[in-house]
Amino acid sequence: MTKTQTIKQQIRTEGLAAGFDVVGFASPGSIGAAGERLMEFVALERYGDMQWMEENVDRRADPVVLWPQVRSVIMLGMNYGTGQDVELGKPSGNSNISVYANGGDYHSLIKKRLKRVASWLYRETAHDVKVFVDTAPVMEKPLAQAAGLGWQGKHTNLVSRDFGSWLFLGEIYTTLEIVPDEKGKNHCGQCQSCLDICPTKAFPAPYQLDARRCISYLTIEYKGHIGEELRKGMGNHIFGCDDCLSVCPWNKFASKASEARFSLRDPADNPPLSKLLGLTEEQFLKNYAGSPIKRAGYKAFLRNCLIAAGNSKKIALTLFIENLLEDEADIVRAMAVWSLKQCNPFWFGKLREECLAKETDNYVRECWQWTPNDLEKK
Ligand code: B12
Ligand code: SF4
Ligand code: SF4
Question: Are residues 25 and 134 located together in one domain of the fold?
Fold first, then answer.
């Protein structure tokens, strides 16, 4: 056994002891065409409002440009599976919240654990280390595939034979030379369930995602008005979306996460929209302190709930929607108007003149437009 193989086994043991479920090793130059594909993604502006994606593209595209001294990348994955089928989005009076938001913020947990492994490695070998998770300019999925953790499926996320779609990724860059693992082989075959299920048609082609149409982007990252053509597909998704992940046949091998902090919330407990639409900002901040849901921000969260309410077409939500017609944020007012039109077109017609007289925002005014047919739709 060579010296690097011994240290490799020790790192794996440390990674598992720190709470990761899988550990693999890649050479920094092993992500092939991924860098060029990232450039294409940026050139086509598929990142939407995530401006940071067009910055540091060179550094993202190649780990060596990010850190010239790096010799190996240690990829670590943490299972966040629920051990049960994940509900798809649908029109409903209850919300649908992504599985990844079932627990506390995974960034801080993973970062803490990465630091534990990295400081051990530094103490053991005196080689430099850097840790990254998610937001750093690192192409985590191609690196994870290069490190043998799985493969990038047609939905673009990493699929694992052992954990299905439910792995969070984090990585340690080091100046230590480590023999890389074998690259993960693609096992998608003829399947294209993830592409077919996407309710907003966010995949222009297999392995490519247009974030601007992805519900995950729309409900978490995007803070503006959501286009009418996308609203129906959002169903009851109010934070993130797992539809393409949950239909993957490889989930049959997935297991429940051992990490209790990933299952603080019962996945079947999707709060009714009536409750969420009535939250004050203070309650929102208190309810979701330490949860990724806070990332959406209060006003965008209300906007998402209003779209879900509109899709439900439930007349019983009228009062909750009406209360938001005079909200100070135009993204909330606009979706309250749209939602009211879906749930109670008669009441929409009644309030229209009075509200239009007070409304100064052009987009919200447009939302108040209607034809007599709108009243007959219900
Ligand atoms: C930006 C981002 C998003 C954006 C864009 C997602 C995307 N697919 O690009 C949005 C907000 C939409 C998003 C959503 C989600 N995200 Co996100 N996101 C990221 C982030 C920060 C960067 C990803 C990136 O660089 N995208 C740019 C594109 C160009 O990269 P790419 O998908 O790898 O593109 C590849 C393909 O297009 C491919 N390709 C193109 N043509 C072809 C042709 C062939 C033949 C092949 C093989 C490949 C191929 O090559 C490109 C390079 O690899 C990463 C963290 C990180 N630093 O990597 C997390 C990350 C990808 N997200 C993650 C998660 C969990 C999610 C969600 C599931 C959350 C949710 N439930 O709502 C959804 C899933 C949506 C989806 N289907 O991708 C996890 C995924 C874990 C995993 N197992 O893969 C990551 C890795 C975070 C983490 N540390 O765990 N996310
Ligand atoms: S997360 Fe939802 S909206 Fe985004 S690509 Fe997957 S199925 Fe489509
Ligand atoms: S659903 Fe099918 S095509 Fe999509 S990632 Fe899973 S195996 Fe691949």
Answer: yes
For residue 160, give the 3-state DSSP assignment: strand
List, for the chain, all residue ranges whose pLDDT scores fall below the cut of 50: 378
**Residues, the chain:** 378
Both 167 and 277 in a single domain? Answer: no
Nearest to 234 by CA among 310, 313, 300: 310
- Ligand 1: residues with CB < 6 A are 34, 37-38, 41, 98, 100, 133-135, 138-142, 152, 155-158, 167-169, 207-209, 211, 214, 216-217, 221, 240-242, 244-245
Secondary structure letter of residue 260 according to DSSP: G
Co-location of 161 and 26 in the same domain: yes
**Is residue 263 domain-resident?**
no
Q: Which domain holds residue 58?
A: 3-81+101-174
- pLDDT (0 to 100) of residue 371: 73
Distance 188 CA to ligand 3 centre (A): 5
- Is 254 near ligand 3, meaning CB less than 6 Å away? no
For residue 375, the model assigns a pLDDT of 59
Count of domains for the chain: 2
pTM score of the predicted model: 0.95
H-state helical runs in 172-279: 193-197, 215-216, 228-231, 243-246, 273-277
* Domain identity same for 155 and 283: no
Q: Are residue 37 and residue 155 in the same domain, yes or no?
A: yes
Position 186 scores a pLDDT of: 97
